Amino acid sequence: MTKTVRLTMAQAVTRFLSRQMTEIDGKKVQIFGGVWAIFGHGNVAGIGEALYQVRDDLPTFRAHNEQAMAHAAIAYAKANFRRRFMAATSSIGPGALNMVTAAALAHVNRLPVLFLPGDVFANRLPDPVLQQAEDFSDGTATVNDCFRAVSRYFDRITRPEQIIPALNRAMQVLTDPAECGPVTLSLCQDVQAEAYDYPESFFAERVWTPRRVRPDRQELAAAVAALKGAKKPLVIAGGGVLYSQASRELAKLVQGAGIPVCETQGGKSSLPDDHPLNMAAVGVTGTSAANRLAEEADVVLAVGTRLQDFTTGSWALFKNSGRTIIGLNSQPFDAGKHWALPLVADAAEGLSELTAALKGWKAPAAWTDNALKGKTDWQADAGKVTASTNAAYPSDAQVIGAVQRTMGASVTLLHAAGGLPGELHKLWQAGAPGSYHAEYGFSTMGYEIAGGLGVKMAKPDEEVVVMIGDGSYLMLNSEIATSVMLGLKLVIVLLDNRGYGCINRLQMATGGANFNNLLKDSRHEILPDIDFAAHAASLGAISEKVTSIAGLETALGQAKQNSRTTVLVIDTDPLVSTDAGGHWWDVAVPEVSSRREVNAARKKYEEALSERQA
Ligand SMILES: Cc1ncc(C[n+]2csc(CCOP(=O)(O)OP(=O)(O)O)c2C)c(N)n1
Ligand SMILES: [Mg+2]
């Protein structure tokens, strides 16, 4: 007879989660690093009580905002190269929906996270319960259906035994490199508390190791033939290189064949910035070194990238009309994009097999030498814009220079939205794989601080530096208090340009009037003068407003010594961004307007559109 144990559905969930394992560097560890939770009536009695039962095996962390706690969970998974992840549980209604944006963030970035929002009563007897939205025509609809569009797997648990196949499926999705993304198990409040005789075997320890798919023979042969015929080959390294931890295999291939590499936002730090063949950032926020090559490349080996518009310059960057793209990706959806020759495989496996098959083949030396020279030219340009200054309002690039000089390349640098992603993509000199943590798939304002917290949980011994604009800071800063509470130190550099600087610049570039972006251009009775240092101090951080680049460097030196989260605030110039490098980006400009500036921008826009090769 099957041995069973009588547990509530919620108790079964937490017990199951605590027994899922993985292996890192030959050591067995829990695959769930913990559960983030904010309780309400939809989860406190069910999941809340069940988390208490396992608190010594599976830690629970409390946050101040459900979106932020999900950000922390997602960043934790990314910093662990998807090898370990977390769950996040909320009440029903607003608590649950606060996590929907984060679910989309994880979906876009292909990152694993388990959402456990509470849901309405499956028995429907007390309806409508507090925070229940009633659908007039569909009795099965609840607000948690919003998660469907942004989950790789969504399920609503309306009977306690449904959790058995649902958690099996959840683990498959969370650990599959191709399918990987958010899983939402929407847990009806009454069912969380219902008991069932679960088979003991359901709670057996399981060890999940990442699947490394090897290439199909025909696809490999086609890719090798294309590369061997290349005169101007280029590798684009995307986030998949990091997720697969394939940096060594990438270096081996490109060093052997003399192929220059460029990196997407997600793929930056695949090779260290000082690797001679690393042309660094590609695309809209790319370096001149990378973009020059991208324009001419005849064979583009795109590894682990979604080929998002920032990478392809909205498909106007790759100008060689005879070009072939090889899509090396674990996900066929990505591998075959834009008529690429698909090479469906794990990045490390695919790169190794390409290296073996290309043995002895080298790209024309003139192409490789040209790349090396382009890199030197770019480094000279980058050095100019990041140099120190006495200006009252330094540029983002000058602040980046100060952070780089003081903190070095051994820190993990995190950012997500505003003007910083573009500047950091070009200018940050990354060190080890994963030391550059950009959330630029969804570019979610407010990811930064909570994301930094998740990274620090994954890498407690490393210095985690968060760079953030005033807009992002004001959108979501509450987890500064959590970082202090948990003793997880962050160094946060806040660039205050008094508004949405990058969108203001985009508005001007598309012919718009300065309107509703910078605070001064927005409807106001009193122009805000926000004391960010005082705000951060009120949340428990050490904080300081610095007035110069030199002052920032001194304060950063001190921040390294601090054991508590430190927030350094500096006023910056909202109008300046780095001209060097870069590429056109498709942002639709109005076809008719009464504004002369818009009409001029539209003309330029139409010219740029004609460059696109769809
Ligand atoms: C949640 C969210 N809302 C809106 C946007 C669009 N957006 C991108 S950057 C930006 C302004 C960011 O301001 P700030 O953080 O101060 O950075 P800055 O542009 O000034 O460098 C806005 C509104 C976004 N990316 N995310
Ligand atoms: Mg700003």
Automatic annotation (TrEMBL):
Keyword line: Thiamine pyrophosphate
One GO MF term: flavin adenine dinucleotide binding
NAD keyword on record: no
SUPFAM superfamilies: DHS-like NAD/FAD-binding domain (SSF52467), Thiamin diphosphate-binding fold (THDP-binding) (SSF52518)
GO BP of this protein: inositol catabolic process; isoleucine biosynthetic process; L-valine biosynthetic process
Transmembrane segments: none
Domain of life the protein comes from: Bacteria
Coiled-coil segments: none
GO cellular component terms, semicolon-separated: acetolactate synthase complex
Pfam families assigned to the protein according to its UniProt record, in alphabetical order: TPP_enzyme_C, TPP_enzyme_M, TPP_enzyme_N
Thiamine pyrophosphate enzyme TPP-binding domain residues: 418-569
Domain Thiamine pyrophosphate enzyme central positions: 220-354
InterPro entries: DHS-like_NAD/FAD-binding_dom, Myo_inos_IolD, THDP-binding, Thiamin_PyroP_enz_cen_dom, Thiamin_PyroP_enz_TPP-bd_dom, TPP-bd_CS, TPP_enz, TPP_enzyme_TPP-bd
Domain Thiamine pyrophosphate enzyme N-terminal TPP-binding: 50-131
Similarity remark: Belongs to the TPP enzyme family.
Protein name: Acetolactate synthase, iolD
Organism: Mesorhizobium amorphae CCNWGS0123
